[in-house]
Amino acid sequence: MSSEMDGGVGMNQMRGEQSICFEQPVPILSSASVVGKKEGEGPLGSCFDCIQEDPTFGEDNWESAESAMQKEVMERALAKAGIRKEDLRMIFSGDLQAQSVASSFGLQELGRPVYQLYGACSTMGEALGLAAMAVAGGYALYAGAVTSSHFASAEKEFRFPLEYGNQRPLSATWTVTGSGACILGGGKKKAAVTGVTSGRIIDYGYKDSLNMGACMAPAACDTICHNLRDFGYGPEEYDQIITGDLGEVGQTILLDLLRKEGIDLEGRHSDCGLLIFDNEKQDTHSGGSGCGCSAAVFASYILPKIERGEWKKVLFLPTGALLSKVSYNEGRTIPGIAQGVIVECLEER
Amino acid sequence: MSSEMDGGVGMNQMRGEQSICFEQPVPILSSASVVGKKEGEGPLGSCFDCIQEDPTFGEDNWESAESAMQKEVMERALAKAGIRKEDLRMIFSGDLQAQSVASSFGLQELGRPVYQLYGACSTMGEALGLAAMAVAGGYALYAGAVTSSHFASAEKEFRFPLEYGNQRPLSATWTVTGSGACILGGGKKKAAVTGVTSGRIIDYGYKDSLNMGACMAPAACDTICHNLRDFGYGPEEYDQIITGDLGEVGQTILLDLLRKEGIDLEGRHSDCGLLIFDNEKQDTHSGGSGCGCSAAVFASYILPKIERGEWKKVLFLPTGALLSKVSYNEGRTIPGIAQGVIVECLEER
């Protein structure tokens, strides 16, 4: 079976307008997660590989703390994969800091080629998708995907100094201090990436950076609709469709928007931002957010459930709000993007 | 000829430690460039598709001006390629602004899937490499690569307010106001991407953000050495090895570092930062820099020379300095990265 393209030879297939179906599933060889104290106290506390009590991770500042997390999580993912760092042909990485410096400083000691990405909180979807494309395209035997966020570095980057102690509206999300990594490639494994739906930038004109769920929900809706249409699926194809960090507010909007498209996800949708915290008990308002939220939840909770066969097929869909403090202060809107990755249990294949 | 990998099927080949050789060259269907007034007054003035006299590009602020450039350059590249925007399956994009907002706002009206990248001034190498991988892997019939920079938005992002009128040392580079785009894919064309060498993050411990050439030269040296070693080439394999924006200071260091590795590039090396400005006449000190520098020079000058057969084979190597104003103010070093792309004239193939 050959693809329809002229230049280049591939056995992978484009599907519909925005999707890819890999001829051979791309195995996820290992995953690892490192989180902070608050995340460790949440409902997924027992799932994470490492809960670090010290929010500075032994470093001098929040930014370096985030780099330390990325370094730690990559080392753990490599150890669990049982491969040497030299075997890792490329790493797709990202974070929320300006100019992605958490990745720059976190990954340099590994000494492996890096493609840094910026997709806001959708970056783990972007990283997993591109890493799977790299392996399926024959460009890498093993490729890494890693992202991180840190509550304190994100508040400083996007909102107010922590010392200011500002009030947070109930629509606000709480940036997760955490990092997740996956190693893709190698031989037969229990779970694999079998497809990708690339995301478009969707802008409904919202401007409230303390209600990012509302900013991202239209993008999540757009990518889900494209995924189902491109593959000719109904929502029942998936055991779960799991967005990144829409939170309670964004989830409500997403389910409403999808209903208008004739798609009912009730009972089939979850959101990493709602899985990682107990909003009532932990005072996290609408839920968790950040590049590290979907990455840590995927690595610690979603992937193991797929590997155990509890879920046969999942659409993992990290969501990003595309703003900077400059764009916000200049009165720009906050567009969203959602990058979709299909992950399947291989047991029955 | 099949690749050595287990998972996934591909006809592309990994070479050595960090390189890829595409089984089928990936055609570059079109390119376009948009620059500001100062760039238009430089040695390449007659090569650019559009020279905009108004530094705000008709917008209210520098950041929006940069987005307007990305929109304009993509529309021009699509028109020159003779394809509809709907045919573009994915766009790899980036800029220097925090959270890459120039791309977010510049590309949203196109309505096509976007993978945003951050590789500082190396981003056009990253974008071209990943776009070529997407086409050669069978994931896209057509993929776009676009980056931009703007002198005023970059000074504001990384250095001092323009109104402050700070003195610039002679080692400083001048951020190019410009954007370049390429459309990859389709049938036989005159030039194509035939290989990629992915870059590592290299840190020699420099901390001077007004001498970025020195910060990036070790990374350029590292990627060049890997490229030559991975493919078994001598430097004479290439008509030109063209770095992104090392400038005069960085070029001197690169040639010195390579000589220590036994590689003599004398007469075979050029640098987009040295091509775009006349440093003496235009008071640009060490040369041009920015994501838009290598992109605009590649689109307007390097690619046409390859298409005309004046150069048969070029290693295009955009270079990035991985810093943010936060990392700088926290006293961190400035690591570098260089992403290599091999571009060849197809006439004699």
What do you see in this structure?
2 copies of one chain form a homodimer. By secondary structure, the first copy, chain A, is α/β, with parallel strands linked by helices. Chain A has 11 helices and 16 strands. In chain A, the strands form 3 sheets. In chain A, strands 1, 2, 3, 4, 5, 6, 8, 9, 10, 11, 13 and 16 form a 12-stranded mixed sheet that branches. A two-stranded parallel ribbon of chain A has the order 7-12. In chain A, β1 and β2 form a beta hairpin. In chain A, α2 packs across α3 and α6 packs across α7. The radius of gyration of chain A is 19 Å and the shape is globular. The two termini of chain A are 19 Å apart. The N terminus of chain A is likely disordered. The interface between A and B is large, with 85 and 85 residues.
Highlighted features:
homodimer, 349 residues, alpha/beta, twelve-stranded mixed beta sheet, two-stranded parallel sheet, 16 strands, 34% helix
Q: Indicate the proportion of strand residues of chain A.
A: 15-25%
Alpha carbon gyration radius of chain A = 19 Å
Largest sheet geometry of chain A: 12 strands, mixed
The chain pair forming the largest interface, with residue counts per chain, is: A-B, 85 and 85 residues
| Global mean pLDDT of chain A | 94
**Which class do the helix and strand fractions of chain A yield?**
alpha/beta
Number of helices of chain A: 11
Oligomer: homodimer
Based on DSSP secondary structure assignment, what is the total number of beta strands of chain A? 16
* Helicity of chain A, as a percent range: 25-40%
H/E series of chain A: EEHEHEHEHEHEEEHEHEHHEHEEHEE
Distance from first to last alpha carbon of chain A: 19 Å
Q: What is the approximate shape of chain A? A: globular
Uncertain regions of chain A: pLDDT < 50 for 5+ in a row?
A: 1-10
